[in-house]
Every structure is written in structure tokens, then in C-alpha cells.
Design goal:
The protein has eight helices and eleven strands. With about 260 residues, it is α/β, with parallel strands linked by helices.
Length: about 260
Amino acid sequence: MNPTHVLIMAAGKGTRLKSSLPKVLHPLAGQPLVEHLLQTVEDLNPRHTLVVVGHQAAMVKSRLRHRAVEFAEQVPQLGTGHAVQVARDWWCGKPGNLLILSGDVPLISAGTLRKMIQAHDRTRAGLTLLSTRLADPTGYGRVIRAEDGRVRGIVEQKEAGPSELQVKEVNTGLYCFRIPDLSEVIDRLTADNRQKEYYLTDCVGLLSRLGKAVEAVVCDDWLEVMGVNSPIDLARMEKVLRERRPGHRKSHAPAGIEPGSV
């Protein structure tokens, strides 16, 4: 595989968690959310790891001081694309791939991430994203594919038309970019949308227009890509972890959780 560098987005407030604690520091099974992710990242043996911080940056840095990671600050927080832009001096010019992860997705497995990276290298794509399929995709960006199966674009819920809203395949917010290709498009992002934010997902269309391949790897286990936006989400994850501990009888979904409710 090509060298892989990891960027973790951890700048958010987590307003819906109704706490002053930074989102990625909310505890799950006795550890902050981001610690679960960093343990998984360690299994990938990346060349370097950067954490993009913002809200209460000093607190996040202090909590992760034992980790061999670097930091970049995103102030103000103007979206996922902006987070990657502020870290440009760190990743630009590095060889290989940039794996971009969300700090609030603690259940993702190293095996799934390896599968995405391997597919990315095999297809020589400019960008490979991780998607999943939900019975109820409300609220998620839809993955729009061309007839040949390649990704043509990602449409956010608020920007989607009637036909796009029927798509069940959704974006998980986890990406693997070929660094030279990302360098070509990252500064072309604009905030010309309803949220007035810089969407990293706009790189899909930009790369496609440059003739770069964009691929998607489907994560069959939607629980792996479940993010945290509320206390209910945290409670759901606790159930998942309990069921996945050694010795516990496994089931497809923990009690009280239905596919499409992530």
C-alpha cells in the first residue's frame, strides 16, 4: 500500500449533546470518543496523524498529550472542507494517501478502513469514500453514482431534489484521498450553499471534472459508521459495545436500535 497519513476532525462543539465538553471528549465505555478512534488508527500504522481541534482546543490537546499526534486549529469552524484547508501545510506535499476521519465515529474497525485504503490503491482513484446503506437515510448526504458505478457526486439532505432523496446509499464522512489530487481541488471549495460552509464532499464533483476517478466502498455494518450527535446516540453505542465484547452473544443490531436510526 502507499504511505497513509491520517487527519482526524475533532473541532466540533457537539451542541446537541447539551454539554460544555468538546464533542470528541464525551465518554464512551470509560474513554473519550476520540480515544476509541485513535486506538483503531494505531492498528493501521500510519506515517503521521493530525487532529484538527477547535472548540476548547486546549482541553482536547491536553487530553491527548500522551498520544503521538500533531494538532491544527480550526477557528472559526466553517465546515469539513475548511478543516482540511487549515491543515494544508501539514498534509500537502506528503507522499501517498490522506485518510480523513471524523472524531465522533468510534466504532469503525481497522479492517473496514484497510478495505477502503486497499480499494483506493487498487483503483488508483483520486478519492475513495466509505458509504453505507440505510433503510431511512433522512439527514444524510446521498451518494449519487453514474451508470458505470463510479461516484458522480454527494448531495446533502438540504440540497437534494426529490429523486436524490430516494437514494438509500449515504456518505459516512470517511475519506481516502490521493494527496496530489486533493492538493489540486482543496482551494477550489466555496461556501455557496445554504449552510455557508465549505463542504469536503464538493471535492467529488471537482475531481470528476478533472477526470479523476472517485470510488465508494460500501460498509455493510452500518453500526460501524454510527456518529454521535445526542445523548441517545451515546446510549446506543454503549449497547453496541456491550454486545460486541468477547463472550457476549452477537446479534445484527442491539436491542432498541433499528437500521436507519443512526
